[in-house]
Amino acid sequence: MNTTLSWLKAYVPDLDVTAQEFTDAMTLSGTKVEGYQAADRDLSNIVIGQINQIERHPDADKLIICQVNIGGGKTVQIVTGAPNVKVGDKIPVVLDGGRVAGTHDGKMTEGGIEIKKGKLRGIESNGMMCSIEELGSSRDMYPEAPEYGIYIFPEDAEVGADAIAALGLDDVNFEFEITSNRVDCFSAIGIAREAAATFRKEFHPPVVTPTGNSEQASDYVKVTIEDEELCPRYCARIVKNVHIAPSPKWMQRRLAAAGIRPINNIVDITNYVMEEYGQPMHAYDYDQLVGHEIVVRRAAKGEKFVTLDGQERTMDENVVMICDGEKAVGIGGIMGGENSMITDNVKTMLFEAACFDGTNIRLSSKRIGLRTDASAKFEKGLDPNNAQAAIDRACQLVEELGAGEVVGGMVDVYSRKKEPVRIPFEPEKINALLGTDISEEEMLGYFKLVDLEYDTAAREVIAPTFRHDLFRTADLAEEVARFYGYDNIPTTLPSGEATAGKLPFHMRVREVAEDIAEFCGFSQGMMYSFESPKVFDKLRLPEDSPLRTAVKISNPLGEDFSIMRTTSINGMLTSLGFNYNHRNKNVRLYELGNIYLPKALPLTELPEERMQFTLGMYGDGDFYTMKGVVEEFLDKLGVSGHSTYTPDTKPYLHPGRQAQISCGDVAVGYLGEVHPLVADTYGIGEKAYVAVLDMDALTPLATFDRKYTGIARYPAVSRDISMVVPKTILAGQIEAMINQRGGKILEDCQLFDVYEGVQIKPGFKSMAYSVVFRAKDRTLEESDITAAMKKIWNGLESMGIEIRS
Amino acid sequence: MKDKLQAIKDEALAQIEKAVDLDRLNDVRVSFLGKKGQLTSVLKSMKEVAPEERPAFGQLVNEARAQIERVLEETKGKLEQQALEHRLKEEVIDVTLPAKKNNVGHRHPNTIAREEVERIFIGMGYEVVEGPEVEYDLYNFEKLNIPANHPAKDEQDTFYVTKDIVLRTQTSPVQARIMEQGKLPIRVIAPGRVFRSDEVDATHSPSFHQIEGLVVDKNITFADLKGTLEQFAKELFGENTKTKFRPHHFPFTEPSAEMDVSCFKCGGKGCRFCKGEGWIEILGCGMVHPHVFEMCGIDPEVYTGFAFGVGLERIALLKYEIDDMRLLYENDARFLKQF
């Protein structure tokens, strides 16, 4: 919403503030000013001059020498190349040392351009005559300006006067951010009311005087509303003997400042009233309305209609059509039709000020694909009581501008009148909510500022119907707060029962994951929750993989963001690929983020969200490096004691280098080397490793409780076991056997050598373990060790392992 | 014999004095005091001394030995000291050579910001809670006073899964879920991921993060809201931070406000960072709307409360002066290692 300071001053004459003061105060009282532009910010020392004499430049064909009267008995000599000036013209003249905003081709210069006296081809020139573009404006704002050349003032302009003021360029255009609850502020009057209240100045809305001749509009037109839900009110007035002409400059400038292109007096009046009152209007050529009637009905499904921009559009049954006795003549609240639009030949016309259901307009305009200034206003839900004031104002302007003869009376179909809301006035509750001690009188004073009436007897505040946001005490509290000043409300801390701040257990587990990953050199990444369904093929998932069952977004940004991920692998591999592509070496990343597993499709209940701790790396390190990170993490969670690794078959991992990770009998994740084909797909040109831990599975197993066990006082005894092992037997199985057979005195067993090669028979590998025994309560005897070792040997031999020592 | 003894002693002391290092000194010790040493051999030749002279001679030998040993020890101490000094001199290193680093990883800037906000509120007695990212329309909109067809639904550019299930557009649905549980008083913050259908560019992302805050108790006031958020701002941005509350509109709070903080770059004078305004918009907040209370089963006549929502990316981008939001999701190691 844009409005100029001069327009606001028309309703708040005593408003005497700088643009910055206005911005600050309005923002603090709830009408946020996004920014402002002073039209004259780069202009100075520009007056109205009159050309007394023109001579040709002796040395340049295209230049002329002008003697310009600048008032006060002073004349200056100016050399110009402008083609359009003649003796007697009144023109804007920037004097020596003054500034203009830009050049005549419309290019603006930040801070303006200083004009200095000088010589043009040897002839002294003491200033410059200005085009409208040099003054920082355009022909959109000043249609009377010539396309090329110097701006020429009307004959009655006063020589020597300030040209900036004469052009109305001493103005500021404010841009407001209006929140959706303040529909009334999408209008110059609405903002002016807030400005008057904010600065405690008097508010003078336009005085709409009765208009019209002795005829009655109801003799001209009949109006029927078929659907009052979608169109609660329709006001129509008639203007005859229409005289189409340009609208006055003040109106054109205000429209242009609001971003609306001036067209002619009638169209400009409808747009002006829309900006002034916030009520969109439309004008129809009365003679094109068959049967001289208006019917408001729903469109037929598939109905075609040509709007006044010449485009054919297709309707559906929820779109409101304005029709005459035979055909549609406009899309209600959105755009009029080409068949009834105002042309230069219009004789009699019908003004429409109607009210439409905001939601329906918003949805209709979306479906048709046509959003207009009018629909943007209607979709916010307008006050039907505003329609009459607006249409009367339009007729008043018609009379004032001599644009036609207004017919008396108004046809008004409005069966269910909107009544003001009455809210009990409970000042103590308002103070209790705000934490303030504001007197009743003061509160009532604030209400009065914005036209809220007070019924003393009923102790009720009456909210005018243009305020859509006032229903209960909390709403009144906001009115009080914003005029008392949010800044003046004290600052306190909540009293009452103390509460213990805490981070829940599962989030503490996440912090441990972050810490461990970082200690191990992994940096935290952040991945998208949605991805492309193509991911499944990239990961070589079989057609029947349950991971292909994903939550689909019905209105995604594109296929690449269309499903909620069921695995965190794609995000990790994408990021590793990005880094590889950017030649980053030795990259280690981790992520904590959800996957989304639907219980059934289509979704009837929320999908299961499982937090995944995903690690990925390439460069230094191998499978066992990644396994080490997993172990460190499981250690910190107190679950590594019963964690196991079993070979796994995920299609995106190397078939011989991947393991499922379990704690007891709970599967908690997996790790492995990325399948070379998959690595290639993601553009990772070297071996990459990933690990995924399901935090929702791990958290219930995790514990931060620890019990101290005494530091051993008796010596340990170490023995090595060297063996030849069939390749099919995994180290994990050997360790399980050693642990099982070693008994209580077994303290530790560590693999220290693995060898596969020519010295070992085919199908076998050589492995060597160091086994440590210790008792808590005594020094072990040789016989203890021998017995334990024998049991271990027997166990290993039973697995088909050959013991060498 | 006596003369021989004297000669040996003199020779020993002379050699000790000449010994330049510990090895030489040890050689001296061995050659005089060792099993086959000269002094030892004198003792062995005792039988050549007349029996009556043997005690006196023995004593002389012992005295000579003691003297040699004493001088040996003294010299050893001196030489050891010299050797240590020499070694330390030899071992001087260039302390400016590069470190052998462990290459510890880095937290994501977003997480750093979130954990900082969490720490501040945990210190003020808030519990951290979470809610689902794929959420019912009921919680994301309806119970927050945003009924069907409310324009706010469009404004927030919602991703829909079904008619009733959306990707949450805000962390505010957690408010409704917590209030429904009915455990009062409430002091929680709810960090999490939210989604809106904005195309990816330097300032927009279809997924980002918020932290929601909710306090519900008897006698909670707008003044409490101001006080709490002012303290939060001071802890997050520094003790000299000033706050400004501006009226605003959110469907689920009334009165509502936006909070600006004085620019932490220029201190409020106005700079390029705050676009010359001196203030930076940080969060939205307000008193919980009585209708929201009613829909969540809390009596608005008894309880009041306040809620606020902070954009995490906004804080992370501002604090770390990151100029492009896309960097947050690219996971470029050169970016991440700066935090």
Task: Report what the structure shows.
- The complex is a heterodimer of chains A (805) and B (339).
- By secondary structure, chain A is an alpha+beta fold.
- Chain A contains 20 helices and 39 strands.
- Chain A is elongated and about 125 Å long.
- Chain A starts with a strand and ends with a strand.
- The model of chain A has no long low-confidence stretch (mean pLDDT 94).
- With 339 residues, chain B is an alpha+beta fold.
- Chain B has two domains: 89 residues; 228 residues, Bira Bifunctional Protein, Domain 2 (BirA Bifunctional Protein, domain 2), CATH 3.30.930.
- In chain B, the strands form two sheets. In chain B, strands 1-5-6-10-9-8-7 form a seven-stranded mixed β-sheet, with helices on both faces. In chain B, strands 2-4-3 form a three-stranded antiparallel β-sheet.
- Chain B is rod-shaped and about 130 Å long.
- Chain B starts with a helix and ends with a helix.
Assign a percent range to the helix content of chain A.
25-40%
Q: How many discrete domains of chain A? A: 6
Name the assembly state.
heterodimer
Provide the helix percentage of chain B: 40-55%
Indicate the CATH topology of the largest domain in chain A. Phenylalanyl-tRNA Synthetase, Chain B, domain 3
Helix/strand class of chain A: alpha+beta
Q: Separation of termini of chain B? A: 85 Å
- Return the CATH class of the largest domain in chain B: Alpha Beta
Mean pLDDT of chain A: 94
Amount of beta strand of chain A: 25-35%
CATH homologous superfamily caption of the largest domain in chain A: Phenylalanyl-trna Synthetase, Chain B, domain 3
**CATH homology-level superfamily of the largest domain in chain B:** Bira Bifunctional Protein, Domain 2
